[in-house]
Amino acid sequence: MRHIMLELANKRIVLGLTGGIACYKVAEFVRRAGEQGATIDVVMTQAATQFITPVTMQALSGRPVYIDPWDSRVPNNMAHINLTRGADAILIAPASTDFLAKLAHGMADDLLSTLCVARGNCPLLVAPAMNREMWLNPATQRNVALLRQDAVQLLGPAEGEQACGEVGSGRMIEPDQILSELVAFFQPKTLAGKCVLITAGPTSERIDPVRVITNRSSGKTGYAIARAAREAGAKVILVSGPTALPTPYGVTRLNVESARQMHAAVMDHARDSDIFISVAAVADWHVVNSSDQKLKKTAGGGAPQLEFAPNPDILAEVAALEGGPWCVGFAAETENLDEYAEAKRRRKGVPLLVGNLAHKVMDADITELVLFEDSGRSSLTPQPKLQAARALVQAISQRLPR
Ligand code: CTP
After folding, report:
1. Which residues line ligand 1 (CB under 6 A)?
2. How many Å apart are CA 341 and CA 356, to the nearest integer?
3. What's the pTM?
């Protein structure tokens, strides 16, 4: 059974395009946001129509596109009012230098700028896109500061190569990142102002330069929790063993391989964190006699003798820190979940331990999380990983000491 959850179901978004080459990327965003259930009303400035046609935007959004404030298709001739009333958000992408200036100063000389001034309580998000010198220009920076004061949310800009060939800050963030930010915007900010440290994925212990011992872990649960925590308004540091997953937008990721590297990275940040969520499948041992050169087969066909030593227990160590973060452990078990998980919670000294049955979890779409804490055991509804992660983040925020 496939569980499809549309991230933008029942959301009506007014999408404003202004003049910039990044308009072509916004076409992709419209398609993706539509797949997630959003209804999108596209409004373009005249400059935007130089970069992409209204026909393209109409075909992708499946709705009329608005450009002209005197559009005779609008019976009362008040598109600037009609479009904003009942909208869940206005998103300007790409937002040009000129448009940011107009927004900051409340100018209203075309349909898009007018509807922004007429927006009332409708939230406004803007994704700037411009040359780096235009972004760094003191006037632009002043305008951005004014927009922040007015509670306009800025998405990006990103650093990187620009259409003009220069390299620097000012690029529009990618369409999938705009989509993640829009979805995040609608999540409750239960962890605003908190710093959350998360470990995820497996660790990998070296035998020689080409061989390792590792645990099976895709990292998906830890990455979903990192995304959910960031959506809830937290600053998130994700210490990750080797995985094939993309970093959730807005999350700081530190890559490690071995358990000892993971331990060092975690200890660097633990004291500055409010919450530590230990999702990684940490290898329990490392190979003491690992080789710097590839081990060769011997003539007699004998197997190498590996010697193991225990790895540090990262979670237990963080939980024992005085004034350390509020700790959440995980236990993926293959049997006797209740008994093992509660014993593990006590052994590690953590207030909350999240259990799941490993054979149900590995690469599965649906996750069932069981919470073990002083007050007993409770289960969260089985659901797709990201939703389960959001429910867990919510549960954590409710349990944090005030
Ligand atoms: N953990 C850790 N450091 C380790 C081992 C585990 O931080 N060296 C954390 C995991 O990230 C998880 C919890 O401790 O949050 C439980 O991990 P698990 O591997 O299930 O427990 P172990 O202590 O290794 O116990 P066992 O292997 O006997 O089940």
Report:
1. 199, 259, 278, 280, 282, 284, 311, 313-315, 329-332, 344, 348
2. 9
3. 0.93
Type of residue at 3: H
| Ligand 1 atom closest to the CA of 310, numbered from 1 | 8
Residue of 278, 353, 354, 357 to test ligand 1 pocket, by largest number of atoms within 8 Å of CB? 278
Burial-class residue 105 by CB neighbours within 10 Å (0-12, 13-18, 19+).
exposed
Q: Which of 122, 164, 195, 327 is catalytic?
A: 164
Task: Give start and end residues of each alpha helix (H) in 22-150.
Answer: 23-35, 54-61, 79-82, 97-104, 111-117, 132-136, 138-149
290-327: pLDDT as tens digits: 999 999 887 777 888 999 999 999 999 999 999 999 99
Distance 354 CA to ligand 1 centre (A): 12
Nearest CA to ligand 1 atom 24: 284
Q: Catalytic annotation on 23?
A: no
CATH number, span 195-286+305-399: 3.40.50.10300
Tens-digit pLDDT profile for residues 318-370: 999 999 999 999 998 878 889 999 999 999 999 999 998 655 655 556 788 99
User: Is the domain covering 12-185 a CATH 3.40.640.10 domain?
Assistant: no
Distance CA 348, CA 331 (A): 11
Domain with CATH 3.40.50.1950 in the chain: 12-185
Give me the pLDDT at residue 74, please. 82
Which of 152-166, 230-244, 261-275 has the least mean pLDDT? Answer: 152-166
Question: From ligand 1's centre to the CA of 91, what distance in Å?
Answer: 43
- Residues of CATH 3.40.50.10300 domain(s) within the chain? 195-286+305-399
Which residue from 344, 371, 372, 396 has its CB within 8 A of the most atoms of ligand 1, so it is best to mutate?
Answer: 344
